[in-house]
Description:
By secondary structure, the protein is an alpha+beta fold. The chain contains 15 helices and 22 strands.
Amino acid sequence: xxxLVIGGGGRxxxxxxxxxxxxxxxxxxxxxxxxxxSQEAVCRPGDILSPSAMAALAEEVDxxxxxxxxxxxxxxxxxxxFHARNLAILGPTxxxxxxxxxxxxxxxxxxxxxxxxxxxxxxxxxxxxxxxIDRFGFPVVLxxxxxxxxxxxxxxxxxxEARAAAEQMLAGKVVGEAGxxxxxxxxxxxxxxxxxxxxxxxxxxxxxxxxxxKAVYDDDQGPNTGGMGAYCNYAILSDEQRSEILAxxxxxxxxAMRRQGCPYQGFLYFGLMMTGDGPHVLxxxxxxxxxxxxxxxxxxxxxxxxLLEGAARGRLPDSAPDxxxxxxxxxxxxxVMASAGYPGSxxxxxxxxGIDQAESLGAxxxxxxxxxxxxxxxxxxxxxxxxxxxxxxxPTTIDNAYAAVARVxxxxxxxxxxxxxxGLRRISAAFPxxxxxx
Length: 438
Ligand SMILES: Nc1ncnc2c1ncn2[C@@H]1O[C@H](COP(=O)(O)OP(=O)(O)O)[C@@H](O)[C@H]1O
Ligand SMILES: [Mg+2]
């Protein structure tokens, strides 16, 4: 089969890398891709925000199936366009993608269906700000309604600061149009978990839990980024927590989407806060996470293609070994290596060295912001690489990932030294990694 992957970051490199190992795949295309992807697939330029341009590209390369990495094309309606042209694609329709495309929609959906989430108010005017700003205590969380590439959420410590930020957001001065409506919600203390499922509209598979590391510096200090690293380990959740997430959050969400005439097909990411009062939904993402995809797919033992195609056809395969998702036994860790200055402004064009040495240790170096310039591999983004490794347990896996990181270098590179360390604190005899299956 010929497969088209849409996007050009670390998540898409992991998708391309995993799909390339499928015996069913003859030819892989990626738009726009990056330097790493170009070594494993044919990269094509194109406007990924234009559903009709993407459908035309799929037709031109004669793609049998298309996989979408990022949210923006889904929210723009790429799946509806492909369906209208009878092209096979996996992902939610534009209507279903509102779960991520509008935080107001997501919060009202959660409330209407009794799915645990923080109490909230919708803000549309300065009067709404005045009437609600004190309602949830402090700190309080302010979220732009629309897509804001990770820059639309502010945590505010007191009333004056919160009021000013909310007024500015509604005036379009924080994230532009995306902030013309906003959600104000109660701050929930706890630990965050990324919980992703693959749904065919009717049935679903739960992927193992992962944790992202959003803050730029160790110990969750400094400004938020797109994600400085992630790890995957069953011990992130106890059996009870996992069952509670499935029963109180995942199943009611998929059921409600079906009842609304909008069965959800594709990956659905539940951003959860594990509070003293059980798991709560912070947000939905209508696609795989980045960087969570890198440690997840590095660990996936099954052929990915039949799973994606099955989900798109409304018929997830149901029996092992071809069907159910099988996972390699060890945990996985992905350390993101970023450009100097990121998440603020940064320079690009710095030559990158040492990837072969890192990979000779058994790691996989997924490319995010890279390109070839005059035959040299150079940086081309804030997040540059995702160095991903496995091992027999979490401490060994962390060591393996950082041993590979130590082989890579480019001017100004920085990375967190504590990816996965949260997980070490949780290791206990109660939730052994060994012997668990998904
Ligand atoms: N109600 C909340 N309580 C505490 N922290 C929150 C809350 N909502 C969001 N956050 C924090 O803000 C981050 C970003 O919020 P999220 O809803 O995931 O939006 P986005 O990913 O679109 O920026 C979360 O990962 C979490 O760290
Ligand atoms: Mg988020």
